[in-house]
Design goal:
The chain is mainly α and about 140 residues long. It has one domain (about 20-135). Helix content is about 80%, strand content about 0%. The protein has helices at about 5-15, 20-25, 30-40, 40-55, 55-105, 115-135. The chain is elongated, with a radius of gyration of 23 Å.
Amino acid sequence: MQVKIDQEKYSRRASAAGQDYAQGTQSPRRSQSEAAIAASKNYEAGVTESIANKSFEKGLRKAGDAKWQKGVQEKGRARYQQGVSVAGGDWGTAMQPFSAALNALTLEPRGPKGQNYGRVQKVGDALRAAKKASV
């Protein structure tokens, strides 16, 4: 069997499919979240295998900084502002429990440099408790 890789065709066809992609999310054959939940054991197995194979590290070594930097310059820079703008409400909602936890803290006054670790520990403990409660 011979497989032909046609990058130009792939880019052209995928670029024209944005509307189909968006419409597909409006009437999926089955619930995306339910399907993902049902596949959680497969996800766990895949992640466990990936960790055992050191796939994350291998992928980073293969790509290096150049791939990441190229992606930022060619895609990320143009998408960043829109992404932040669209996600602002979700970010605010997700941050609310952490803001509330910090606002509820009563910290002792700051001490001399190097003697404030108790304050830092209280902040860390409050944020960790908020994280556990929000999951």
